[in-house]
Amino acid sequence: MKAHYRFFERAQSTAHTPPNRNTVASTITADMVVQVLVDGKDPATLPVTTFDNGIAMINTESCAALGYDLAAVKQAFDGKCSSVLETTTQQNFN
Length: 94
Description:
Helices cover 41% and strands 11% of the residues. It has four helices and two strands, in the order H-H-E-H-H-E. The protein is α+β, with helices and mostly antiparallel strands. A two-stranded parallel ribbon has the order 1-2.
């Protein structure tokens, strides 16, 4: 058992829902944080983790603001997820 799980055992013991992609992603992220902050690893040496299924959400406004071609971004996700959906910002945070 990895050391950081001790901190999450209590929270997990009260959870009544089965694991989903969000909890899996959170666990992977927590593992990476521990590797950097506790084990002293260089973040640049950690592998990029992707899922082979799921949905990629692309914010079309952010995509355009960054100067990316939406079609090229969608194509970059080809084969890496089950579908690519477009979204726009739903709330103004100003």
